[in-house]
Amino acid sequence: MLDIYTLGEEVLTEKCQPVTKFDSGIRVLVDAMFETMSEADGVGLAAPQVGVSLRLFVINIHGVEKRAYINPQILETSIETDCSEEGCLSVPGVWHDVVRPARVSVQAQDIEGKAFTVKADGLLARALQHENDHLNGTLFIDRLTTEDRESMVKAYERKHRPRKKSKP
After folding, report:
1. Residue 1 located in a structural domain
2. The one catalytic residue among 14, 76, 131, 147
3. 39 is a catalytic site residue
4. CA-based, 20 to 30 A from 167: which of 17, 123, 147, 157?
């Protein structure tokens, strides 16, 4: 299990570096990310969310997709958009509607370094875009209006502020 970094951690705002070595270290990281994501009940997890500034994310949408995406590039997005609620393991406890392209085409590499392309719609398209944003230092709340973003940050802080201990 890996620690999931949360709002305020610098690694979540950085543009990640490409993966250049497809070795056992990447396999171990990918396996640990899948385990961490599963324990946290997520559908996607990007490397910066576990403190690693590499262009890598994993997705597991039961019955649809379970795969690591290394050095992903969004090749094409649809003009048509979709507005759906999103949350994030790095901003736990808050959700908000986010507008994104309804369909996306993504090229990436697998853990062996072999290139593949995925065309997606629905939840998979949304997850691919959400996780790819992490690799560019963007959180889903950064896609909201300034007012909505501030509201989400305040809601997050209220939920995660240290509680004062009551006197005995």
Report:
1. no
2. 131
3. no
4. 157
